[in-house]
Amino acid sequence: MTTNKINLRCFSLTDLNRIMEIEHASFAIDSFSEDIFMSWYHKCPYLFIVAEISGVVVGYMITCITHKKSYVASIAVDPAYRHKSVGKTLVYFTFNHLKTSGVKIVELEVRSTNIESIRFWENLGFSPLRTISNYYNDGTDALKMRKLLGG
Ligand SMILES: CC(C)(COP(=O)(O)OP(=O)(O)OC[C@H]1O[C@@H](n2cnc3c(N)ncnc32)[C@H](O)[C@@H]1OP(=O)(O)O)[C@@H](O)C(=O)NCCC(=O)NCCS
Predict the structure, then answer these.
(1) How many whole angstroms separate alpha carbon 82 and alpha carbon 62?
(2) How many angstroms separate the CA atoms of 119 and 125, rounded?
(3) Average confidence (pLDDT) over 41-64
């Protein structure tokens, strides 16, 4: 059996077009613009991580640290590469970085209708904190989720 190795590295500006492709394929209505990606890049360059398989960028994750808390700004995997542990690999790498930085809390918001992603986060140890009404532009609620990083 051949397995495709997942390589992780920091985002670089030459990845932007590919990240935009993944973004548009992943988020129907509220995909980030190039400007938003650039502002996250300037805010949190060390945790804007891209995943590659055979030299192709297949996913990304952006996390920001503010004081001793962290916030997952976004994660997406190219639909053709989902369910191959790319998302999980990005998350575990990020958790390790956060732990070594002394960060104990990770939070995020997910569309309350995005059941697949809510399951994904629950499987990674996140618990629902509360619902934020009318959070997205189309009026959909967000579910705020949190994980405490032990050790
Ligand atoms: C959420 C997302 C990043 C997951 O990426 P992925 O590479 O497919 O995830 P993985 O293959 O690493 O899956 C990790 C675990 O999550 C769970 N999981 C993944 N997809 C799932 C699904 N559709 N339904 C239920 N559980 C799922 C599985 O338990 C899996 O672990 P296992 O393979 O050991 O059983 C991807 O589906 C995606 O890009 N979605 C669209 C964008 C999005 O909604 N982002 C999140 C916004 S908060």
Answers:
(1) 18
(2) 10
(3) 97
Instruction: Give yes or no for residue 3 having a pLDDT over 70.
Output: no
For 93, other C-beta atoms within 10 Å of its C-beta total: 16
Phi, psi torsion values for 16, nearest 5 degrees: -60, -45
- Amino acid, single-letter form, for residue 84: K
- CATH number for the domain spanning 88: value is 3.40.630.30
CB under 6 Å to ligand 1: residues? Answer: 26, 75-77, 82-88, 108, 110, 114, 116-117, 119-120, 123
Res. 151: pLDDT tops 90 = no
Residue 1 counted as domain residue:
no
- Residue 32 is assigned to a structural domain of this protein: yes
For residue 131, the enclosing domain spans 6-148
